[in-house]
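[job 0417] fold request received: Nucleoporin Nup159/Nup146 N-terminal domain-containing protein
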Amino acid sequence: MLVSFRSLTAQDANNEVVNASAKTKITVLDSQVEIVCIGLNADESLLGALVNNQQGCFVFVYDVLTLSVDILGEAFPLTTIRIGNSISKGLAFEWNPVSYDMFAASDDEKTLSVCKIDLSNPSKFSIIGEKKLDTNIYEISWSPKGKQLVAGDESGKIFQMKPELEVMARFTYFHNF
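[job 0417] inference complete; emitting structure tokens
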């Protein structure tokens, strides 16, 4: 379930406290859905939720305004994007910090995907890159300009990649615990 709320007090443009009514809006997801992680895109207009259900791993993309307590009615995803090709579980999710229509996600079947949403028709999307790796990716981070991403796997390898998932560099680190 996704919950949005507004408290009893708020601040106006002059930083003065004003009274506001308390409101809560609950967006109920199917009881079989497990939220792995959520995040806002670069311009904070979209919320992505990496979820697992009985059919596999998906990213639900919502218009943030539909989740607002001020918008009546239930919020539904603009689009639902499968990550990987099997009944897998999601592991990592990260929006591009510059291209607010692009994100990367990984699953436990060693798949890393980069997707781009068509903002003129948000129900449409394209897979910019999808790559099967040797081990699962648990961490994803984009460069500040959003032109490359790094992905860390369970064996300690870090991959530097283009959004199309062309590997530019590979680093191996060993842990002594």
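[job 0417] notes: The first strand starts at residue 2 and ends at 6. The chain has a mean pLDDT of 86.
[job 0417] exit 0
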